[in-house]
Amino acid sequence: MPTPPSSPGAERVDGSTVRIGALVPLSRPGWVEAGRHLLAGLELAVQEVNGTGGIAGRPLELVVRDTAADPQRAVAAVDELARLGVAAVAGEYHSVVARAAATRADTLGLPFLCSSAVLDALTEQPTDRVARLAPAQSHGWQLYADFLLGAGHSRIAVAAEPSVYWASGARILRDRLAPRGTVAELDMRALSSADLCGELVGLRATALLLLVGHPEPAVSIVRSVRRDQRLSKILIGAPAGQPEFATWASSLGDDGAGIPFLRYLPERLGPLGARVGAALRARLAEAPSFVAFEGYDTVAVLAAVLRSHGTDRARPAGTWQHVAVEGTRGRIRFSRTPGIGVWQWAWAPVQVVDRDPAEPTRFRVLRAG
Description:
The chain is 37% helix and 20% strand. By secondary structure, it is α/β, with parallel strands linked by helices. The chain has a seven-stranded mixed β-sheet with strand order 2-1-3-4-5-14-13, sandwiched between helices. It is globular, with a radius of gyration of 20 Å.
């Protein structure tokens, strides 16, 4: 069933509100914790927009739909949101789902601002209707590969599941590491966690990257590798960001520390980011992830576009290049980037971080770019 809107009256059709559709993974097999953080950021920003007069005096409201990480469900949601007359669609965390939603929104002539998904090919064809806040996968994952090389890792094993997103990530890593290292891909459909450990020993891998789902099989893999004395010196990495969220730490405890991942935050937040971070922490009852900041920035951008260019859905599509918004993580502008078919913020700050083994609730910045 469709997820109810996040606030009462969000589906009024009397023209008294300006509605934005929000696509968020709020049920399994979606990454629910990421969805919760994304929605918290979206809702906080809507609250603040309305506290400063809304859009030309009209309240801004979210119409939230749960994608459950299902591309077909996301497409159906975009169709429904278009019928409801939303001015734009925003959100989504899972890259494959975002790609389906963006393609459908483009077909319907509906502006779509992608909050968090990173797959380079977000649409099948170049379009003026779609923009993205998150860095493209090639940008962030190349930085991650550079981190591996800088740390002395040239024999990399990848534990992977079948997915366009995972396959794209493996290709980026392989291409970046090729001159100085090797990448062996291990199909987790055919291997148990114990079998994987034997393969790693045979490959003499110095690093294992998890290109698999969370919590499973990622949690089981980490436990198996940590308990295998033959692999005591191997680095486990998770470029997609699994260790960012509290459930990772609660599931793995100390075993979940020292696993580098990508996140999209500056080393230090400015005044706006610090204020929003405090508000998000109060709303979530835990430290906000970068995904929560992405949600907030999404609404900040859309509010600026709607205030400047009106709520007719045909207008925002051609205005991304005019955006200049102070976001929580820096000034946001969109441009055409080679190889990217949508308007892109190039780039949000990127970090390689891990949880400090001495204090797993604290994050260490290992590389930034």
